[in-house]
Amino acid sequence: xxxxxxxxxxxxxxxxxxxxxxxxxxxxxxxxxxxxxxxxxxxxxxxxxxxxxxxxxxxxxxxxxxxxxxxxx
Length: 73
Fold this sequence. Notes:
Layout: H1 6-20, H2 25-50
């Protein structure tokens, strides 16, 4: 159980190369993710700034009126 074979060493080398090698793939992926999160936050902030207070004149009553003239005999 304690011995490390050649296949395990190759696998460890491949994983290490993917994580740390290849011109900073992981750092570029994390940088792109950070840019996406930053743009999402600014988009949320812009939406909140674009909202204005609603006055009573802007309100629309959409509730249906009940028929008061309906009589039951």
